[in-house]
Amino acid sequence: MKTISLLGATGSIGTQTLDILRTHPTEFNLAAMSVGKNIELARKMVGEFKPELVSVQDYQDCVTLKAEYPNTKFTFGIEGLIEVAVYDKSNILVNAVLGSVGLNPTLQAIENGKIIAIANKETLVTAGHLIMEAAKRNNVPLLPVDSEHSAIFQALQGEKERNIERLIITASGGSFRERTRQELENVTVKEALNHPNWSMGAKITIDSATMMNKGLEVIEAHWLFDMPYEKIDVLLHKESIIHSMIEFHDSSIIAQLGTPDMRVPIQYALTYPERLPLPSSKRLNLANVGKLHFQEMDVERFRCLRFAYEAGKIGGTLPTVLNAANEVAVASFLEGKIRFLQIEDLIEKALNSHQSIDYPSLDTIQEVDIETRQFVHSLL
Ligand code: NDP
Ligand code: MG
């Protein structure tokens, strides 16, 4: 029996993780979880999974729930996220919280020897060097949940990283893949949230439309697989059937395929190196699919992808700025405060106004994260 701490239980990845736990009740047990503000859903989860420890975002919700469930321990805020992440009975942390708020809990869980199943890519983008160093020092596995990275991780089994020629990360193209830049001027939030292949949380769906998601994934791949940026390519593949590939020195390419269903990579991270049946997942029928399409990526059409490569290559605190600016810009777009193309303008301004600091400590990263958020807010 594997015992799990889950950050972000009420989100898209969080609820699908719980779906896997529901499918395999004798394999997994939920000991601790965190939610944000969705208290209604949290109540249902507490009733069904009976975790011992629950963290909520706000103090008042914590007080309310404590009165309702006297046998469950409740906590709140960033301290609460950390408490869940390091909960002593858990051996795996599934980090499916949104944004760089997941950084400190991940680091603490690594220091406490937890296996990390990481969906929270903003953490790796912001502080990949700290996470990877801590994981190595504590001999803790970091198992990717993001479908592209899971695909690469699966293709790497039995292979050596030193034999990799390049990683090929596939991109669906997001909600606006058929539109020109000009046609993006006046797109609405509703249109942007309409992803053709994947059903995901709002922020990552917007990131897919701007192509920032792929940019964040390039940086994520750089850290997870210790790969220079020159050896990470992005390929448009509109069907989202090939989830990513590795090309080896001898020109062999190994890919992982499947219908777009996040439960597959989530479950693989939870069962690795074993596999379990996933009866509810739709089987891939290639004869029905017929054709797969591939197209080169245009970094002028998708400027966020270029920003991410540039920020990743320079490194230091620049990826922190990229991520924090993006988090604020996307939230502002979702609130209807800015237009779609202003997302990239704000990120560009934040990047241009920052002098990168090399090898930043956790404190420096957190300061730059806050400063960047303030800077972008001041532009709104
Ligand atoms: P959602 O927005 O659906 O869920 C986010 C979760 O985090 C919710 O439980 C939310 O709580 C909680 N949360 C948000 N902000 C805070 C905060 N400040 N403090 C505490 N809890 C908070 O996101 P997704 O599930 O889509 O994505 C989660 C992570 O996984 C992201 O990093 C994303 O990039 C990554 N990912 C997602 C994929 C997907 O298919 N969705 C695919 C690959 C990666 P509540 O709702 O209760 O307020
Ligand atoms: Mg992905």
TrEMBL record:
It catalyses: 2-C-methyl-D-erythritol 4-phosphate + NADP(+) = 1-deoxy-D-xylulose 5-phosphate + NADPH + H(+). Its EC number is 1.1.1.267. Residues 4-128 form the 1-deoxy-D-xylulose 5-phosphate reductoisomerase N-terminal domain. Pathway: Isoprenoid biosynthesis; isopentenyl diphosphate biosynthesis via DXP pathway; isopentenyl diphosphate from 1-deoxy-D-xylulose 5-phosphate: step 1/6. The keyword Oxidoreductase applies. Residues 257-374 form the DXP reductoisomerase C-terminal domain. One of its GO terms (molecular function) is 1-deoxy-D-xylulose-5-phosphate reductoisomerase activity. NADPH binds at residues 10-13, 36-38, 120, 122, 201. It is an enzyme of class 1 (oxidoreductase). Mn(2+) binds at residues 146, 148, 217. Pfam families: DXP_redisom_C (PF08436), DXP_reductoisom (PF02670), DXPR_C (PF13288). Keywords: Isoprene biosynthesis, Magnesium, Manganese, Metal-binding, NADP, Oxidoreductase. It comes from the Bacteria. Residues 142-225 form the 1-deoxy-D-xylulose 5-phosphate reductoisomerase C-terminal domain. Catalyzes the NADPH-dependent rearrangement and reduction of 1-deoxy-D-xylulose-5-phosphate (DXP) to 2-C-methyl-D-erythritol 4-phosphate (MEP). Belongs to the DXR family. This is 1-deoxy-D-xylulose 5-phosphate reductoisomerase. The gene is dxr.
